[in-house]
Amino acid sequence: NASKIKYFCIDSSYVKNVLGRNCIGRNPTDRGRKATKLSAIVTDKGIPVSLVFFPGNTADVNTVLSSIDYVRELLSGFNHRRLPLYADKGYDSRAVRSTVNKAGFLERVAKRKVRTHRILTSKRTVVENFFGWLDKARRLILRYDADVESYSSFTHLAVCSIIAKKL
What is the pTM of this model? Predict the structure, then answer.
């Protein structure tokens, strides 16, 4: 039920690429090896509402608009209040803040060069835990699929399993 959601969290994670041919880019955190980036938005209960795939060299700042579009469609039928969207320092920019505000959310983005507040960190643990639960599906740790669509399908199956366990 969308009326019981208190806040959303956004983050991204890299998936190492082995045989993929599309949606791949050089991962800056893994010595330039090819990877795919998964951007996820989860609710306060850890239920994912948006999963979007990007090439590995896409900055977090550039993934926000595509990720938020799915959440906006989800909440369009509800008369909802402005919910906060928590993000880490990788999303700190004026463009992200304005995009999030225009989309109808309260932006709660950690600022660079400022010590992260304890409350912000505790709220963001749900998205970090989501990626931990997703890594329990061993098939998703490395991307062997040539097309991102088939990898996306297996990711959605794993998400369905996570949601079933939570309910």
Answer: 0.90
